[in-house]
Amino acid sequence: MKSYDETPWWCQLLWPWFGPPWYAEIEDPDAFWAAIARQFAQQAGELADDLAGDDRPGEGYLAKAGRLTSARYQAEEIIRHEYGPPIPEDDGDECNEPAPDGERPMVVNRDHPSWAEVNAEQQERIHGPTTD
């Protein structure tokens, strides 16, 4: 996993267009992203300390290094999940709209008489029009 030296790429790429409305009011985006990266790193560090727990009696060097590394990775993943990419709002995509007049779309399988026509239309959409 990457450290929090760089802010998640999707934030820097998408927020200018699709981010929260207050993002346009930020005067210095670089300073903002640096502050966010520091905040993420601090939260991940604190959570990693909590997840790692206290040293165990008789724990060897490799066991301790593995426990601390595992706790750090787990903490980073938890923090990334909490501040993960924004879930797009439902914008009324045509896929979510019911069929006109409340009818269900017709299902055409290979046994249906319209199969050849429907299959040809789909192949044309996928591969482009055929040239004769």
Describe this structure in words.
The protein is an all-alpha fold. The protein has a domain of 74 residues. 52% of the residues lie in helices and 0% in strands. The protein has 4 helices and no strands. Helix 2 packs across helix 3. The longest helix is centred in the N-terminal third of the chain and has 24 residues. The protein starts with 8 loop residues before the first helix and ends in a 5-residue tail after the last helix.
Beta content comes to: under 5%
Characterize the main sheet. none
Structural class: mainly alpha
Counting DSSP E segments of at least 2 residues, the number of strands comes to 0
| End-to-end distance | 52 Å
**Helix fraction by DSSP (H/I, runs of at least 4):** 40-55%
Model regions low in confidence, pLDDT < 50 over at least 5 residues:
none
The general outline is elongated
List the secondary-structure elements in sequence, H or E. HHHH
Mean pLDDT: 76
Number of distinct helices: 4
- Give me the Rg, rounded: 26 Å
